[in-house]
Amino acid sequence: MGTTERADRFYADQVLDRLNTRMRAFAARQEMFFLATADRHGECDNTFRAGPPGFLHVLDDRTLAYPEYRGNGVQASLGNIEENPHVGILMMDFLQDRIGLHVNGTARVVADDEMRRTHFGLAYDPVPGRRAQVWVEVTVEEAYIHCAKHIPHLRKVPPRDTGRAWGTDDFKRKGGDFFGAAAEASERGPFLPPPRADAAVWRAEAERVLERAEQRTAAAKEQTFGGWFSRSVSA
Question: Rounded to an integer, what distance in angstroms lies between the CA atom of residue 108 and that of residue 220?
Fold first, then answer.
C-alpha cells in the first residue's frame, strides 16, 4: 500500500517497549479498556473491561494488572490467555484528552491471594460485583499512541441514583435480549454444549497448558523481542 516508510518512521518514533511517565498516568486514570485475545488456533475475541478509575493497575513501567470480575461464565478471554498469552489492550479517552493508548504484551492469570501477597496495598472493592475472582497480569512489550483524529469527544452523564448494576443476575438489568437473538437462535441449529471433563481429566489438561506456557516463557527469554511491526528486508 506504499506506507512502509511512514510505518517505519512511526515505529521508530512512537513505539516503546515500556510505559513512560505520561503513559503510566494515562493508564492509571482509565475507567475502561478494550481487550483483544486469541486462542491457540488464532480465533480472535475482543471484549470490554470497566471499573472505577485505577482498576487497571500500573505496577511498574513494564507491568499492568486488572481484576476479572464475575461475568457470564463463558470466560472467553481467560480461556484464550491460558492457550495463547499474547494480548492487545486499547485504552480510549473520549472525555478529556481525546487520545488512545495501545499496549501489546503477554498475559498470565494470577489468583487473587497470590496477587495480594506479591503487591501489597491492593484495595478490596466493597461492591460485590467488583470483587476480583482472579487477576490478569500483562507484561508490556509494545506501547504506542492511537491518534486523535477519529476519536469522538464525549461528555460524561452524571450518575443516577440507582447506580450501575455490578454483579447482577437480573436478565433485564444486564441488557436482556436487546438484539433479539433468542428468536433467531434456533435457526443456527441446536446448541450442544461441549462435553464437560471430570476433575482428573480437567486437571491433567490444565497441567499440560501450564507446562506449555512455561516452555513458551523459557523460549521467549532466549530470544530478543523485535517488535510486532518489524519486517524482514531482503538484501
Answer: 14
Q: Which of 82, 99, 89, 92 is CA-nearest to residue 64?
A: 89
Nearest-CA neighbor of 11 among 234, 230, 232, 235? 230
| SS3 (DSSP) at 34 | strand
pLDDT of residue 234: 47
Nearest to 145 by CA among 97, 86, 106: 97
Distance from chain centroid for Cα 171:
25
Q: Are 140 and 19 in contact (CB under 8 A)?
A: yes
> In this predicted model, what pLDDT tens digit does every residue of 50-100 receive, in sequence order?
988 999 999 999 999 999 987 766 788 999 999 999 999 999 999 988 999
Instruction: Kindly list the distances between the CA atom of residue 62 and the CA atoms of 41, 97, 107, in Å, as whole numbers in the listed order.
Output: 27, 23, 12
DSSP 189: -
**Cα–Cα dist 110/10, whole Å:** 34
Q: What is the pLDDT of residue 178?
A: 74
For the chain, give the longest Cα–Cα distance: 66
Residue 115 CB coordination number (10 Å) = 19
Q: Coil, strand, or helix at residue 128?
A: helix
